[in-house]
From TrEMBL:
The keyword Repeat does not apply. The lineage of its organism: Bacteria, Bacillati, Bacillota, Bacilli, Bacillales. Residues 11-49 form the M protein trans-acting positive regulator (MGA) HTH domain. This is Mga helix-turn-helix domain-containing protein. Residues 72-156 form the Mga helix-turn-helix domain.
């Protein structure tokens, strides 16, 4: 939801991310990358240095600027700072969590004029129209797609504050835990799910429901969990005292929506439920498509999935959740995959390509594909071990020189890289064969200048690789592995 930020906040976010990822950068290089004036960048950096308390801005005449994060802060601090500094997100948080506001009260809380408030609301409504969310006035409140509003609030709390205790009272959090325990006792055990997110989701649902905002859902009346709560004066009183919420089956369904959405569903049970609802073909088709996708992914990676049934069920569940979004400004799953290792980045590249071949691209954002790839990655048994197995690099030696010299080169390279490569020595008359069988080689080492072989690295040196050529060979081998 970065598109909701104003120009200043967005610049600050991009500058902090860029400096965090790249290290030293000059204002000139930042200006070229961002298409902004150097004067504006210097002004933004001075502003950040004065107001942010989680890093130290360093300057060098030659190298430019660099930010040094204090050891007790992580990259998350960037997003916490931007969300707390943004007037747009502060306004949305106030409207979504509280009863309707008057213009006077909002201006007082945000330290802005009424004309600024009107312009801000107008701009946000234009941007939020793609999400089917809008802000009404007289009084001011946020309405529209209730599922997205709750999703936004859950992610906002976790990203902006990190700890739910910074937003909600101890009594609210304790009660939320009690509801979770009751749900597990009466319905099903919750596993493989972020429990903190569920606790926040329950409280968000209580607040939104108490303010008469509802998700459009098919009514559930005959429910053991609802009966236990409605028949227990303690629970009824707690809902009233903590959230000013009168409990009925409809309101309980709203409160527990995130739990029913997050439970780990058994595929057979899902198909049975779907069949009862006259929708079995949809689930069968959806499930089979996930299965085919995993088979294709496994084939592309040339790695078996030893626990395929489990991975399949988890992927199926993740794709069919109502609450799909992962963050407001920070996509942790993307960050994880791009930061961990080259092997995992390669895995995502294959995953993304195969996924887009199998599923409708319009239904799945890049953010969601990162989340689904993370879901498969952490559940696929022994995947990291198999991804990290070194591939044997196939090297072809082709030199116009004495055969003994070629054998010496081959022995030297084998000794240098031990079991990481296999070598083939070809004579001059076999040049056509190299091009014909290029798929069998990852790298060709030769003394022939200007030799080009499609989709195969060619490194040329006269008699023996110098330091620079060894660097090129090392880089090529690393790329293949």
């Amino acid at each position: 939801m970065r598109y909701l930020l104003n120009n200043r906040s967005f610049r600050h976010l991009i500058l902090l991310e860029m400096l965090y990822d790249k290290g030293w950068l000059t204002t000139k290089s930042m200006s070229q990358k961002l298409g902004l004036a150097e004067r504006l960048i210097r002004s933004d950096l001075e502003d950040l240095n004065c107001n942010a308390n989680f890093f130290k801005l360093e300057y060098s005449r030659k190298k430019g600027f660099c930010i040094r994060f204090f050891s007790n802060y992580s990259k998350n601090a960037i997003y916490m700072y931007i969300l707390r500094d943004s007037t747009e997100f502060r306004l949305l948080e106030m409207l979504a969590f509280n009863v309707p506001f008057s213009a006077y009260k909002l201006c007082e809380e945000l330290y802005i004029s009424k004309s600024t408030l009107n312009r801000l609301v107008h701009t946000l409504n234009e941007k939020l129209s793609v999400c089917n969310i809008h802000i009404t006035s007289s009084p001011f409140k946020i309405c529209g797609d209730e599922l997205r509003i709750r999703q936004f609030l859950i992610n906002l709390v976790l990203e902006k504050y990190q700890k739910s205790s910074a937003v909600f009272s101890t009594e609210q959090l304790t009660f939320s835990n009690e509801l979770l325990a009751l749900y597990e006792n009466k319905i099903t055990k919750i596993s493989n799910i972020n429990r903190e997110k569920l606790k926040v989701g329950i409280i968000v649902a209580c607040i939104r429901t108490s303010n008469n905002h509802y998700i459009d859902m098919k009514p559930i009346n005959d429910n053991d969990l609802f009966k236990v709560i409605l028949d227990n004066p303690f629970f009824v009183a707690k809902f009233q005292a903590l959230f000013d919420l009168e409990i009925q089956p409809q309101s309980l369904q709203q409160v527990f929506a995130i739990l029913y959405d997050s439970r780990e569903k058994d595929i057979k049970q899902v198909n049975m439920e779907a069949e009862n609802n006259g929708d079995s073909l949809f689930f069968d088709k959806d499930y089979c498509k996930c299965d085919e996708f995993l088979m294709k992914l496994s084939s592309k990676l040339e790695i078996e999935i030893p626990n395929r049934e489990f991975v399949l069920q988890e992927l199926f569940n993740e794709m069919n959740r109502l609450y799909k979004n992962n963050g407001v400004l920070f996509n942790k799953h993307k960050d994880f995959i791009t930061d961990v290792t080259i092997e995992i980045t390669d895995f995502y590249r294959v995953f993304s390509k195969v996924f887009r071949e199998f599923f409708n691209q319009g239904m799945y954002s890049e953010e969601l594909i990162y989340k689904l790839s993370y879901c498969v990655l952490i559940r696929w048994e022994n995947l990291i071990k198999d991804l990290k197995k070194k591939r044997v690099v196939k090297i072809c030696l082709y030199f116009n020189c004495d055969e003994r010299h070629q054998l010496f080169l081959a022995d030297y390279i084998k000794q240098e890289y031990k079991d990481e490569c296999s070598l083939v020595i070809l004579r001059e008359e076999h040049l056509k064969n190299i091009k014909k069988n290029r798929r069998h080689y990852n790298l060709v080492l030769t003394d022939v200048n200007g030799l080009y072989i499609e989709n195969t690295d060619v490194i040329t040196f006269s008699f023996f690789p110098d330091k620079k050529k060894w660097g090129e060979i090392e880089e090529s081998i690393h790329k293949v592995r």
